[in-house]
Amino acid sequence: MIERANAFDFYGPRSLVGPALKAGDHAPDFALVDSRLKMVTMATFSGKPLLISVVPSLDTGVCSKQTLHFNEQAAALAERAGFVTVSADLPWAQARWCGSNNASHMQTLSDHRELSFGQSYGTYVRDFRIESRAVFVLDAEGVIRYAEYVPTAGQEPDYSAALAALRAAIG
Protein backbone atom coordinates (compact mmCIF):
# COMPACT_ATOMS: atom_id res chain seq x y z
CA MET A 1 0.00 0.00 0.00
CA ILE A 2 1.43 3.35 -1.06
CA GLU A 3 1.04 6.44 1.11
CA ARG A 4 1.87 9.85 -0.24
CA ALA A 5 1.69 13.36 1.14
CA ASN A 6 -1.15 15.66 0.20
CA ALA A 7 -2.03 19.16 1.28
CA PHE A 8 -5.54 17.97 2.21
CA ASP A 9 -6.16 20.60 4.86
CA PHE A 10 -8.94 19.03 6.91
CA TYR A 11 -7.32 19.57 10.33
CA GLY A 12 -3.86 19.66 8.79
CA PRO A 13 -1.98 17.78 6.07
CA ARG A 14 -2.92 14.15 5.60
CA SER A 15 -1.56 11.23 3.63
CA LEU A 16 -3.41 9.71 0.71
CA VAL A 17 -3.30 5.95 0.32
CA GLY A 18 -2.73 4.54 -3.15
CA PRO A 19 -0.98 5.50 -6.37
CA ALA A 20 -0.98 8.91 -8.00
CA LEU A 21 -2.60 7.98 -11.30
CA LYS A 22 -1.89 10.09 -14.37
CA ALA A 23 -2.97 10.51 -17.97
CA GLY A 24 -1.92 7.46 -19.99
CA ASP A 25 -2.32 4.97 -17.11
CA HIS A 26 -4.85 2.20 -17.51
CA ALA A 27 -7.63 2.86 -15.00
CA PRO A 28 -7.88 0.29 -12.21
CA ASP A 29 -11.08 -1.73 -12.12
CA PHE A 30 -13.49 -0.90 -9.34
CA ALA A 31 -16.45 -2.44 -7.54
CA LEU A 32 -18.74 0.14 -5.98
CA VAL A 33 -22.26 0.00 -4.57
CA ASP A 34 -25.18 1.92 -6.11
CA SER A 35 -28.25 3.24 -4.29
CA ARG A 36 -29.98 -0.16 -4.67
CA LEU A 37 -26.97 -1.91 -3.06
CA LYS A 38 -25.94 -3.50 -6.36
CA MET A 39 -22.29 -3.77 -7.34
CA VAL A 40 -21.19 -1.57 -10.21
CA THR A 41 -17.84 -2.19 -11.88
CA MET A 42 -15.89 -0.39 -14.56
CA ALA A 43 -17.25 -2.93 -17.06
CA THR A 44 -20.66 -1.29 -16.62
CA PHE A 45 -19.30 1.69 -18.56
CA SER A 46 -17.32 -0.28 -21.12
CA GLY A 47 -17.15 1.25 -24.59
CA LYS A 48 -18.04 4.74 -23.40
CA PRO A 49 -15.87 7.54 -21.97
CA LEU A 50 -16.38 8.03 -18.24
CA LEU A 51 -16.01 11.03 -15.94
CA ILE A 52 -15.42 10.00 -12.32
CA SER A 53 -15.92 12.79 -9.80
CA VAL A 54 -14.63 11.86 -6.33
CA VAL A 55 -15.79 13.77 -3.25
CA PRO A 56 -15.30 13.45 0.52
CA SER A 57 -19.05 13.71 1.29
CA LEU A 58 -22.04 14.86 -0.73
CA ASP A 59 -23.44 16.61 2.35
CA THR A 60 -20.78 19.32 2.31
CA GLY A 61 -20.85 22.57 0.34
CA VAL A 62 -18.00 22.09 -2.13
CA CYS A 63 -18.83 18.41 -2.73
CA SER A 64 -22.44 19.31 -3.40
CA LYS A 65 -21.43 22.09 -5.76
CA GLN A 66 -18.99 19.81 -7.63
CA THR A 67 -21.57 17.07 -8.05
CA LEU A 68 -24.29 19.46 -9.19
CA HIS A 69 -21.90 21.03 -11.71
CA PHE A 70 -21.07 17.67 -13.29
CA ASN A 71 -24.73 16.57 -13.04
CA GLU A 72 -25.66 19.57 -15.19
CA GLN A 73 -23.05 18.61 -17.78
CA ALA A 74 -24.21 14.99 -17.69
CA ALA A 75 -27.67 16.10 -18.78
CA ALA A 76 -26.20 17.23 -22.10
CA LEU A 77 -23.57 14.49 -22.59
CA ALA A 78 -25.13 11.40 -20.98
CA GLU A 79 -25.81 9.71 -24.32
CA ARG A 80 -22.12 9.81 -25.22
CA ALA A 81 -20.37 9.46 -21.85
CA GLY A 82 -20.89 8.09 -18.36
CA PHE A 83 -20.82 10.29 -15.27
CA VAL A 84 -20.37 9.03 -11.70
CA THR A 85 -19.70 10.54 -8.33
CA VAL A 86 -17.80 8.37 -5.86
CA SER A 87 -17.75 8.95 -2.11
CA ALA A 88 -17.62 6.90 1.07
CA ASP A 89 -21.13 8.08 1.94
CA LEU A 90 -23.61 5.27 2.53
CA PRO A 91 -25.70 4.44 -0.56
CA TRP A 92 -29.00 5.58 0.99
CA ALA A 93 -27.40 8.88 2.05
CA GLN A 94 -26.29 9.35 -1.57
CA ALA A 95 -29.83 8.56 -2.77
CA ARG A 96 -31.31 11.03 -0.26
CA TRP A 97 -28.90 13.74 -1.40
CA CYS A 98 -29.70 13.12 -5.10
CA GLY A 99 -33.44 13.30 -4.40
CA SER A 100 -33.10 16.49 -2.34
CA ASN A 101 -30.95 18.16 -5.02
CA ASN A 102 -32.68 16.93 -8.19
CA ALA A 103 -29.43 15.26 -9.27
CA SER A 104 -30.68 12.61 -11.66
CA HIS A 105 -28.20 12.69 -14.53
CA MET A 106 -25.15 11.45 -12.65
CA GLN A 107 -24.90 8.11 -10.87
CA THR A 108 -23.64 8.15 -7.28
CA LEU A 109 -21.59 5.16 -6.18
CA SER A 110 -20.46 4.30 -2.67
CA ASP A 111 -17.00 3.11 -1.64
CA HIS A 112 -18.05 2.75 2.02
CA ARG A 113 -17.37 -0.96 2.45
CA GLU A 114 -13.63 -1.32 1.93
CA LEU A 115 -12.60 1.97 0.32
CA SER A 116 -11.03 -0.18 -2.38
CA PHE A 117 -11.70 2.46 -5.04
CA GLY A 118 -9.89 5.04 -2.92
CA GLN A 119 -6.94 2.71 -2.43
CA SER A 120 -6.73 1.86 -6.15
CA TYR A 121 -7.18 5.43 -7.37
CA GLY A 122 -5.09 7.09 -4.65
CA THR A 123 -7.93 9.09 -3.06
CA TYR A 124 -8.27 7.30 0.28
CA VAL A 125 -7.71 9.54 3.33
CA ARG A 126 -7.12 6.90 5.99
CA ASP A 127 -7.25 9.33 8.95
CA PHE A 128 -10.91 10.13 8.26
CA ARG A 129 -11.99 7.07 6.21
CA ILE A 130 -13.14 9.28 3.35
CA GLU A 131 -12.14 10.02 -0.23
CA SER A 132 -10.08 13.05 -1.20
CA ARG A 133 -11.49 15.30 -3.94
CA ALA A 134 -10.39 14.23 -7.42
CA VAL A 135 -11.59 13.96 -11.01
CA PHE A 136 -10.69 11.30 -13.56
CA VAL A 137 -11.64 11.08 -17.23
CA LEU A 138 -11.36 7.67 -18.87
CA ASP A 139 -11.63 7.01 -22.58
CA ALA A 140 -13.78 4.21 -24.01
CA GLU A 141 -10.90 1.73 -23.55
CA GLY A 142 -10.40 2.57 -19.86
CA VAL A 143 -7.26 4.65 -20.30
CA ILE A 144 -7.03 7.71 -18.07
CA ARG A 145 -7.03 10.87 -20.19
CA TYR A 146 -7.25 13.32 -17.29
CA ALA A 147 -6.45 13.01 -13.59
CA GLU A 148 -6.71 15.79 -11.03
CA TYR A 149 -6.09 15.36 -7.33
CA VAL A 150 -7.42 18.53 -5.72
CA PRO A 151 -4.85 19.44 -3.03
CA THR A 152 -7.08 21.39 -0.65
CA ALA A 153 -10.33 20.12 0.87
CA GLY A 154 -12.32 23.31 0.17
CA GLN A 155 -11.02 23.82 -3.38
CA GLU A 156 -13.10 22.92 -6.43
CA PRO A 157 -11.61 20.95 -9.31
CA ASP A 158 -10.78 22.46 -12.69
CA TYR A 159 -14.16 21.82 -14.32
CA SER A 160 -13.11 23.25 -17.69
CA ALA A 161 -10.03 21.02 -18.00
CA ALA A 162 -11.95 17.89 -16.97
CA LEU A 163 -14.79 18.59 -19.40
CA ALA A 164 -12.36 19.42 -22.21
CA ALA A 165 -10.68 16.04 -21.65
CA LEU A 166 -14.06 14.32 -21.66
CA ARG A 167 -15.09 16.00 -24.90
CA ALA A 168 -11.77 14.95 -26.46
CA ALA A 169 -12.36 11.35 -25.30
CA ILE A 170 -15.84 11.45 -26.85
CA GLY A 171 -14.29 12.55 -30.14
Rg of Cα set = 14 Å
* Strand runs, count: 11
Tell me the strand percentage band. Answer: 25-35%
CATH architecture: 3-Layer(aba) Sandwich
Q: State the strand order across the main sheet.
A: 7-6-5-10-11
Count of the separate structural domains? 1
Q: How many helices in DSSP terms? A: 4
Structure explained in plain terms:
This protein has 171 residues and is α+β, with helices and mostly antiparallel strands. The chain has one domain: Glutaredoxin. 26% of the residues lie in helices and 26% in strands. The chain contains four helices and eleven strands, in the order E-E-E-E-E-H-E-H-E-H-E-E-E-E-H. It has helices at 61-77, 91-100, 116-121, 159-170; strands at 3-6, 14-17, 31-33, 39-41, 50-54, 82-87, 107-110, 124-125, 130-131, 134-138, 144-149. The strands form three sheets. A five-stranded mixed β-sheet has the order 7-6-5-10-11. Strand 8 and strand 9 form a beta hairpin. The N and C termini lie far apart (36 Å). The model has no long low-confidence stretch (mean pLDDT 92).
